[in-house]
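FAQ

Q: What does a record look like?
A: Structure on top, sequence underneath. For example:
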């Protein structure tokens, strides 16, 4: 697979870029060099490689959810900067 000058012009048009002829030629050469380098991956033997989404095995490190007794409201409100009617009062964020 290779990139042609027409491909570069098409992408430049989609991106609304005005390229000179020299820039078009330069980008064509650079993109072809990138594709040539990426084709090296086809040389690898991946027949016995299992497909993975991560290099390392990932396990859930979170604890199981458990129902527990919560703090009494009086103790929670001791940490609040201001309280009103048993609720934490905060500054208004909307006018």
């Amino acid at each position: 697979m290779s990139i042609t000058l027409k491909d570069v012009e098409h992408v430049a048009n989609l991106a609304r870029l005005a390229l000179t002829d020299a820039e078009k030629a330069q980008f064509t050469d650079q993109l072809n060099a990138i594709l040539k380098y990426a084709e090296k991956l086809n040389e690898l033997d991946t027949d016995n490689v299992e497909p993975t989404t991560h290099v390392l095995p990932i396990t859930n490190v979170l604890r199981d959810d458990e129902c527990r007794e919560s703090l009494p409201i009086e103790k929670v409100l001791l940490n609040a900067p201001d309280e009103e009617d048993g609720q934490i009062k905060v500054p208004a964020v909307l006018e």
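Q: Is there anything notable about this one?
A: Strands lie at 83-84, 87-88.
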